[in-house]
């Protein structure tokens, strides 16, 4: 069947015929076949080593002819001159041969990979079979598709052959259904939302442009929301004054807020440094001013830790807890937060 590839035969449009006499009597077969559509060409297989030696491939211009004949194929045609011809769909004959060749090539490639990688042939084969099984399982829920020739027959504009020139004629003794009128309908007028349209367009329409656009918009919208959330996040002000003003926070609470920013991967180091600087008020802002805006967040924290970090031992912390009183005008909630922070240190 090398002729199929060398001659670039359209398998779905073709028949293979056995029994030609290479005489004028073969014209009766031609007259029979031409009733189903225009014949583009005929190719004689001349290969003594092939089982299809002296067979003839009949390629139609459109797949509609094969679609019409497919219900009765393989078909034995007996001409008025009492010559018998066996007519089969080329796809039915070519597929097993091509599949066998592909399988042989596949096995040879696996054996080559086994030698290169050092893995056993059985292991590589088992891995590939697992992949095939997964693919088959994924496609098990999909409805069966019609044969390639039939799908092309339905979608091919050329399949609307001129009935005045080549009316479909059924083989003797075969009753075919009346053709359904398609007047007023354009071929290939499949709606995107119908199952038939999806099957007709193939696997490329599983993820159509409309769905891709919706996915991209969803991703961009989420990223924008996350970005806006990150930008809107602000650290409470810290000045280092004692007692701590009601609109500010103490160092430990401020340090906890900074830790959250450091753990947030949506911020860059420059953004972290900017937020730290924005949250600092004088006199703390004057302490880190010499570092400059390009300093890393860790540099700011290291300097502030040395100035405002906890250096007391356990007794000092306990004494500080006992002396932690509510400031004048301080809200009870703020006082409880400060108290909780001190208790945490003592523990």
UniProtKB/TrEMBL annotation:
What Pfam families would the database entry show? PNMA
Q: Which CDD domains match?
A: RRM_SF (cd00590)
Q: Which residues cross the membrane?
A: none
Task: Write down the InterPro entries for this protein, in alphabetical order.
Answer: PNMA, PNMA_C
Bias (Polar residues) ranges: 145-162, 179-188
Cleavable signal peptide? none
Paraneoplastic antigen Ma-like C-terminal domain span:
238-346
Using the UniProt annotation, give all residue ranges assigned to the region (Disordered). Answer: 136-188
Q: What PANTHER family would the database entry show?
A: PARANEOPLASTIC ANTIGEN, ZINC FINGER CCHC DOMAIN-CONTAINING PROTEIN 12-LIKE
What's the protein called, per UniProt?
Paraneoplastic antigen Ma-like C-terminal domain-containing protein
Organism (species): Oryzias sinensis
């Amino acid at each position: 069947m090398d002729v199929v590839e060398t001659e670039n035969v359209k398998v779905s449009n073709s028949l293979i015929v056995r029994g030609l006499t290479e005489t004028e009597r073969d014209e009766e077969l031609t007259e029979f076949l031409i009733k189903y559509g225009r014949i583009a060409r005929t190719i004689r297989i001349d290969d003594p080593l092939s089982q299809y030696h002296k067979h003839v491939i009949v390629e139609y211009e459109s797949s509609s002819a094969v679609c019409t004949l497919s219900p009765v194929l393989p078909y034995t045609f007996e001409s008025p001159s009492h010559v018998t011809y066996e007519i089969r769909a080329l796809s039915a004959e070519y597929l097993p041969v091509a599949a066998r060749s592909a399988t042989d090539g596949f096995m040879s490639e696996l054996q080559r990979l086994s030698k290169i990688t050092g893995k056993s042939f059985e292991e590589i084969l088992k891995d590939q079979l697992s992949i095939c099984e997964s693919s088959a399982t994924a496609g098990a829920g999909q409805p069966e598709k019609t044969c390639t020739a039939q799908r092309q027959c339905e979608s091919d504009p050329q399949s609307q052959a001129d009935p005045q020139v080549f009316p479909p004629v059924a083989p003797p003794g075969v009753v075919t259904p009346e053709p359904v009128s398609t007047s007023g309908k354009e071929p290939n007028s499949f709606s995107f939302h119908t199952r038939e349209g999806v099957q007709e367009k193939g696997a490329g329409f599983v993820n159509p442009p409309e769905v891709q656009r919706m996915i991209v918009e969803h991703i961009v919208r989420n990223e924008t929301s996350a970005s806006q959330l990150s930008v809107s996040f602000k650290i409470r002000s810290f000045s280092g004054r004692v007692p701590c003003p009601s609109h500010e926070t103490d160092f430990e609470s401020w340090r906890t807020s900074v830790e959250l920013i450091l753990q947030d991967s949506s911020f860059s180091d420059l953004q972290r440094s900017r937020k730290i600087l924005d949250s600092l008020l004088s006199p703390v802002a004057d302490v880190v001013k010499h570092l400059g805006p390009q300093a890393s967040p860790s540099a700011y924290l290291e300097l502030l830790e040395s100035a405002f970090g906890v250096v007391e031992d356990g007794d000092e912390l306990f004494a500080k807890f006992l002396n932690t009183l509510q400031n004048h005008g301080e809200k009870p909630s703020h006082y409880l937060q400060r108290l909780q922070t001190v208790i945490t240190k003592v523990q």
